[in-house]
Amino acid sequence: MTDFFDEIDGVKQAARDNIRADISTAINKAHYTLGISREVAAALACEAVVECYSQIGDRDGAAALRWMADQLDSQPSADEEDNGLLYE
């Protein structure tokens, strides 16, 4: 049974790698063709991913944004160095 779960994990990792590569390519394309910074392009990519996620099964986009912020630990604090994230 372990082989089954290992296979599922492998498929999920392959999908994750493909999606990550596509997003990275889109960020670089926006940077080079539109002249925006990679930071802005990455922030826009995050927004786009959340929009896609919220359209699947009628999910709450605001909840998805909060989840993503939690995953990124994006709440700035006074004692943290600038981590390059854009806060609005």
Give an overview in words.
The protein has about 90 residues and is an all-alpha fold. Helix content is about 70%, strand content about 0%.
Secondary structure layout plus pairing:
Layout: H1 2-34, H2 38-55, H3 61-72
Helix pairs in contact: 1-2, 2-3
The tally of helices reads 3
Order of helices and strands: HHH
Strand tally is 0
For the biggest sheet, the summary is: none
- Work out the strand percent: under 5%
**Which structural category do the helix and sheet elements fall into?**
mainly alpha
Helix content: over 70%
Give the mean pLDDT: 82
Rounded to the nearest angstrom, the distance between the terminal CA atoms is 47 Å
Low-pLDDT stretches are none
Q: Radius of gyration, rounded?
A: 16 Å
Tell me the overall shape. Answer: extended
Considering the chains and any ligands shown, give keywords for the structure.
single chain, 88 residues, mainly alpha, 3 helices, 72% helix
What is this entry, summarized?
The protein is mainly alpha-helical. It contains three helices and no strands.
